[in-house]
Fold each of these.
Amino acid sequence: MGQSLEAGIGLSVAAPFVAAILAPIIHRFAGRFSGWILALVPAGIFAFLLGFAPKIAGGETVTSVIDWIPAYGIGLSFLLDGLSLIFALTISGVGSLIILYAGAYLAGHRHQGRFLAFMLAFMGAMLGLVLADSLLVLFVFWELTSVTSFLLIGFDHARQAARRGAIQALVITNIGGMFLLAGGILVQQVSGSWEMSAVRELGEVLRGSSAYLLILICFLGAAFTKSAQFPLHFWLPNAMEAPTPVSAFLHSATMVQAGVYLLARMTPSLGGTDVWTNILVISGCITLIWAALGALKQTDLKQMLAQTTIASLGLLVLLIGLGSTYAIAAMVVYFVAHAFYKAGLFMVVGAVDHEAGTREITALGGLADKMPVTFIAASLASLSMIGLPLTVGYFAKEEMYLGLLGGEWMAWLVLVVLVAGNAMLAGVALLIMIRPFLGETLSTPRKAHEAPVAMLAGPIVLGSAGIVAGVLPDWLGHDVLVPGASAILGMPVESHLTLALDFASPLLWLSALTWAFGIVVYRQVDAIRTLLRRFDAVLGWTADTVFDSVMFGLIRFSGALTRLLHHGQLEFYLVVVFAAMAAAIFGPMMLFGGLDWIVPTSDLGDWSQRLQLPPLQVYEWGVIGLAVLGLVAVVAAPSRLVAILSLGVQGTAVALIFLLFGAPDLAFTQLMVEILSVVILTFVMTRLRLDQRDHRRFEDWARDGSLAVLCGLGVSLLLMLVLNGTLDTRLSDFFTATSVPIAHGSNIVNVILVDYRGFDTLGEIAVVMGAGIAILALLRRARKTPAGRHPDVRKVALVRKARKTAP
């Protein structure tokens, strides 16, 4: 039973992908109920993973390994511990509500089935990412999140802004993916393992390695691009071009949290150094303040939430960088709180936009009477975002303040940043909760009314969860904080969460100061917005405009390089190819002493023996003579037709050599290729005068002849070197031993071509087929063009007419 449950972890990753394949079909038959049906998949995954909670809370871990590349010791390995379980439950739990929400939000859309498929695939990619134990598996799912998010952000591909946002997100996050791959390879080279569960025990080895700084840069590059840390944050607001269900999922529980997860996972292996702490703390502080200010200058509700997401990601990175027990505990609790309130608020904003026709905060007011349930959901989520008592957000804020009290001046400086950042986030929460719903009722593009049940279920459930978890501190501490923090720190952690309010504690007064500043921000937001926009106007550029300039320059550079290298002169292409071939042959031989045995020395007898030809039979000399005759015929051909036919003589000689040395299959193939080549060349050349000879300048003749001799000499010398060495028969022995039992073929050559080199052979066939189709198309086009209307004929006719009419 235990093994079947462990195997179910891999199935829980595969299930969303299967559902994604079936989503368009289900939507076709289920219609508006497809969201309810497909939401059962993530809900089932949530229930399945929740069954592991008691075991994980008890300090155990669960692993599952599926053979992938056993020859290299690489498997699809998954790990379930406190950290991965929290992320996986958040992804599947929030995901089930968002799939339900999306079914109503996009009701009637002609591509709703496709959208739900993309969402489920996105969910599966993120589940695989947080459950992966192997760094290679992590990289695969990491890239899948980038691809699926590209499809979701650009879902409304008819709009240029959506296409731009999708491309921007793909470019930035794929750069991070390359960083992750490089970092994973370096970690494997240093530690000898791909498994993160094994690597975490080798932290001292990694930190003591000379490659530590390079590894750290790679992982930070991956995390900062994915989790939108300053100055790589600009792609995330542009991702708001995606439909609101995507924004709700993207910002709360999925892709943008992948970088935070990676940093938390690698903390035992790479954390604990000054460079780790300094980079993460400084980057987190800057990102928190910059994005919080960015949220205040927005009037679009989705953009406000997007900027607060960036600020929250900076806060999470800051806490991971601090690395203390309190900071890590705050990071775990804050991640859960953020997932609850951010997904809920995005769904609230989507409901307002869907039912009122706008999400501009300056055009909204008095919606509480028309959308009371939506207002309740917004209030519940906003209270947690503010961090009031009896919410999960309150405990997160208390933990992050607790870890900085009584420290040195740097700790106090970070504490000031945290208070300021949390105050601005609280101000934004007050704006979202009050401005659209209370105050004077404003006219909206649509007559506002309450959203459907499927769109209200998510915000209400998540807003209520943020409150329920807040009034159950024992459960929150025992089942969330302790397992998650212990998994990050690699040591047991105790919970001290309690509902008791100590009015003598500086923590409560710091919280009160945060709330007070939040109210000030709310009341002065218009003045703050005006000031920030004036600053942007003076600055004149943003990271977004820098990205556009870089992309424009890259495109211009690519165009110039293409024009330089792909100029259309086929003759020059061939010269470059054969020159590179000669360099590739002679360069390694000269560098590694491969020519030493060829240079004559005093030991002439040994040198002459090395170049001694084996004894040949008369018919073998005849084949060599035929090859030489074909070579002379090609060089001395008096016309193009004779040159084409002489090439066939060369190919026939090669086919006879194959035949003489026991390879009849290769000989037959070579013969057929030669016949086909001669026939095709003859057909193609029919449009030219075959009875003429191509006259070339001496410079071209000398250059091409020298290259031909050099390449031929190089290939011959290389073969001599190979034949002079010891023959390694391991590969041929493997083919001989396995061709019958594995490939069920007694003809080893056929088995090699069809089975062992199957993809290579398929590629060769595809190339030949493509060339044949292109030639056939050219020939058919030539036959369809009337002789009198051929461009060359028209040109001649015009010249003749001009001569006749000339005075």
Amino acid sequence: MRTGSVLSEARATIDPVPRWDDAPLVGRAAELAHLLGHLDRAASGRTSGVLLAGDAGVGKTRLLDELTARAAQRGVRVLVGHCVDLGDVGLPYLPFVDLFRPVAADPELAPAAAANPVLAALFAGRPVSFPVQPAAEARDLSSPLPHRAAPQPVEDGRLQLFESVAGLICELASHGPLLIVLEDVHWADRSSRDLLRYLLARLSDEPVAVVASYRADDLHRRHPLRPLLAELVRLPGVERLELSPLPDAEVGALVRRLAAAAGSLSESAIEDVVARAEGNAFYAEELLAAGLHGEALPMALTDVLLARVEQRSPAAQQVLRVAAVAGRRVRHELVAAVGGLSDGDLETALAEAVHHHLLVVSDDGRYRFRHALLREAVLADLLPGERVRLHAAIAAYLARVPGAGTAAERAHHARESNDLPGAFSASLEAAAAAGGVGAPAEQLQHLEAALALWSAVPDAEERAGRGQVALLLETAATARTVGAPYRAVALLRSALEVLGPDADPETRARVHYTLAQAMVRVEDDAGAYRESAAAMALVPAQPPSKVRTWAAATHARMSYSVGRNDEADAAAEEALAAADALGFDGAWADIAVTQVRARPGADPAEVRARLDEALIRARRSGNVEVEMRVLYNLATVPFEAGRIGEALGWTRRGTRRARDLGVEWSYYPAELRHLHVTALYMAGDWDGSLAEADVLARVPEMSAHVRADGLLVLVGRGDPSARERIDWARSLIPRLSAHILLDLVTAGSEIDLAAWEGEPQKAVDVALAAYRRLRQEWDDDHLGVLRLAGTALAPVGDAAAAARRDRDAESTERWVRAGEQLVEAARSAVEIYRGTYGDTMGVEAIAWLARVEAEGARVRGEAAPELWRAAVEAFGFGHVYEEARSRWRLAEALLATGDRVEAAEEAGLAHEVAVRLGAAPLRTAVEGLIRRGRLDVGGVRAAEISAVMTPREAEVLRLLAQGRTNRQIGAELYISEKTASVHVSNILAKLGANGRTEAVAIAAQRGLLT
């Protein structure tokens, strides 16, 4: 925190503005720009005033810190004064004593004012006494003041003081613009308020900006600052600026930055902090500290919040207690029924709570707390017995009055008042209501609450109308719907424990095959196979039954996944025949998809016909999960064949259908969205791809790869926020170790970012680490390494080329070895895949293999335009960006072989795509190649080194590129080593480089070196 006042001048050699946070300002760009506009107005010679309003903790001080720092950088003198809460008996003029402390310490700043006896007490920080001299005499000691319609009259002594303070400000402003900041004027004493009124009314054409901040939530109806504010905003040049709560995205950025600096915190915990803070930066910081140290609600924050509550009357406090227990929003009728107050007392208490900004009235007429944390603090302050009593009274009211509340509310209050049977029944009712309106996340929450109470309610089965196993299966199905497969696995295992080995075989079989379906979603194929085999062993094949049919359909899929193809074929044929015979359309559709996916290389027309029939049957059966599986495969088949437009048609249809059914984050809908985002990216619709990836900020962790998909665009465009999203995804991977898609998406983007930032070793390390994890989780499909290796080879090739240019044989050999390691990993993955699946790689995998071969040649120092032409053609199936990147490298290879005409053509095509996509890193690279090669490409102006460097600097840069030292440069150019050093420093500054090697790289990229 800043203490004392601040005085800054242009001639200061250090930053005079103490900062409580050196990190960039978050989420206040518009407000800061507005305040800087007032500073510009003052600099032009017109007095300007801003009344900065905002709740406690919303960020007023942080914004003012930034303003004062910016003002100091502009050469504006800054004075800061603080008001302090001293109750009704404040010290007169305290903020102005604070404000003018630097002037008192250095009389040379304002010599005329320093000699003014009227200001002596103010400078000394003593109670002000007024000399017995005429007011005119006092005014002569200060600069002449232009007159506004200043408030008349104050008693003569105060007029002398006010005029003297105005004169002091004018004297300071006569040397340059002046910024005056008064913080927390809601605590200002009456004399200070009067002086502020006088100054804003008196000053008009002086280069002075006045910013006074106050807490809006402290201004009750009778607060003495209210009439002053109403008066001040009517003055010319004075306006009110209100700081609203920060958007969640900005609070999230703040919390993640602080969490990264202070310690590890899960993404879910960060999102909880963001939600609870409700846009208040101070609350977010306190909650973050609590999250890092295990505190529910920090004592410091609780004390701050309760201080305002404890100032209210007993009746108002009772209303707040009832409202806190009732929930975030509460109806008047409930408070009246439960609060125990007469009608008159209730009206008065509610009015008091509203007028002091503790409660606000919603549009629907209900009362709610101004901030959710205020409610939390009131709840935390309740005695246990009082809380239970209020919950019981509210539960009784809700049960007694029809329509007074929802089943979820009744369940909550019954549970908190220890009415467990009532809570159990209400939870089941709430779950049914949530399921009826398509809210599976809330349905899961209520079902789990009921399960937790099962053993504590003697007649649970009677109340539920079903057994515990049936409730566990229902809850597990809901968990799968919301994208929580790990939770579904745990619930199904609990169901098996409840059943025991002697339970009905068909029921046990159903649980086993359902558990298998859930386990495969968490990458446990071996476990899923064991569970489906157990289901098959419990139910005979004859006579055909629904349970056996589904067990066989599930076992076929699991057997294929672990390579037991003969066993899988037998189970599939049995399931298909039984489904046909019994009319089980859902099972038939499911096994049809399994067979299609198990037979790669089948005739495309037959595959499409089979999937079309499966979709019709799945729809007819009403089995949503199977329908989503069919839609996913209808999109996957054309995607793998390179028909991106057709794939997008199915992904749009599938994601829309999933949204309509309320299952958009179950497994297949999430994969459909992943495919949709990826296909849009490939097709060159980067705005659409990013929008779909970010359609919901909060997604289930098992669907985190969908949001991570947005990295493809962010990295491709050089967006600085890519690093933050990579860190977010990286934080999830340890908890979701089997989530290979998340790992591959994150690693691929991290490698790409490292490539553009010139970090070859990091790119290699990330690629190989991800490849090791891929081999550990998947036995025979490691093709994901093709993209990782192809992308990581790019900076390795650059590093190898630079080492050759510098004649550094050791570094050249090192990078060639690293490149060979990546190429070998890619070739090995292809060999393993073909050994299992034959020649059935998709077009994207084939394209990345072509890229790997081309990049491998570049690492070895070979231009190999034929390999790059093959990569261009391979990506021509519809991957717009990677085709353009391959064209860039093809142009580079053609230029190396002397084919300038074709090089210019390929570079131009790559440049057009980079511009259209907003792919800034690729555009910069292509333009650098065009300029270095002096290629004739429309729209790209050749870089002339003379426009950047002096002739001597150009000579020095040429020698720098050859690896010369300052002494060698001096000797070759017949200048001193010191002069050579000065030229090198100038070159680094002009290029924005931190060192000689980086300067050469930047110059080469910009085409300043041939």
